[in-house]
TrEMBL record:
PROSITE patterns tied to this protein: ARGE_DAPE_CPG2_1 (PS00758)
Assigned keywords, A-Z: Hydrolase
UniProt key word Hydrolase: yes
Organism: Holdemanella hominis
Protein name: M20 family metallo-hydrolase
Record-stated family: Belongs to the peptidase M20 family.
Key word Lipid biosynthesis present: no
Record CDD domains: M20_bAS
Amino acid sequence: MKVDVKRIQNDIETLATFNETPGCGVTRSSYTKEDKMAKEYLISEMEKIGLTVYEDGMSTLFGRREGKLKDAPCVMLGSHYDTVYQAGAFDGVAGSVAALEVMRVLHENNFENDYPLELILMNAEEGFTFGPSTGVTNSRAMMGTLTYHELETRKNRFGQTKLEALRAYGVEPNLEKAKRDPKTIKNFLELHVEQGPVLDRENIEVGLIKYLAGIGRYTIKFHGKTADSTELMSKRKDALVGAAYFIEKFNAVMRTFGDDATGMVGQLNIVPNSNQFVPEYVEGKIEIRTFTKEVVDNNDFNKIIIDLLNEVTEKYGIQTELEEIRRVNYPNPTGPSIMDYENVEKMEKICDGLGYSHKQMNQGTGHDSMIMADFVDTNMIYVPSRNGGVSHCPEEWTEYTDIEKGANVLLELVKDLSIK
């Protein structure tokens, strides 16, 4: 029992045609006509294999295959099919298509599963569409951590709030209807392209994820006083000087954690941004990624940031602010999202049996599995990203045969987990 790589390729290439920016990568944003076209294609493919198709209160698409056990929790498999602006054809889609192909193979072989199986295809994983704090929407809605405030306030590049975009898409969001009791999900499984160079560089066919990094995002603000460039140095309250001091100190602190955490100020907005005037206001964006639970348990990253901001105020007389966008980790400040290690070991044996090289990995990128792991047993399979591991750009590439191998591992794991 094996997956069909030609069908995988056809699915990926077909989905790539539902594209806002032909000739400039693939753009399929949440709640757009391209999203709707992709969804219609996926529904038709699910109906061909007899899945019971339905959507929840946030437009997440499901295809259910009942099992022998009545009222048993399901094995859920899938990923997302939305993209960032001018992306590649593989991020998210590879996992969605691999899961769809697994369901096809089980149907064609009349596989008898005890636990029900549910294919999940999500259309709002990318935070790009409505901002970095708004990603993994479908999984957050399922697990009850999405808020109505976000729907009313976060806007896309067209100026629509998420609520307005959903309504234009034909969905009246219902967060209560979208919420899922975690007890109804036995396992959550997601295949994804690596979005990094490790598997390609080391010539390894399958990555088995042990944990995903915790992610924290913050906005920092520095309020100085504007003045002409002739203002005496002793009289200035330069917001940019204060921000620069903070950045240097913050970088030094983050380096003390070694390989357990990373952090940076990656974006600055300076007002006025001119060589003729002393900056009166600077806004920066911080991103922190944590790779061990211990580094989160033993350190309060919010306090680290606040203490450094207070240093700036004391040293330069500049008022500062901190806005917490997402605390390490989201939704709970508990650190990295840990995968089910028993299943990691199962997949190692599956890879050995299939003759695939494999590697246990830890990863810093965010996925829906990051959310699900806080509530249900979760596992991720990575397949190599070529071209140096780039993603979210037209140069993103994964060989179809790489996806085939990852999908075969997923198939065998699903077979194992769906039998009592």
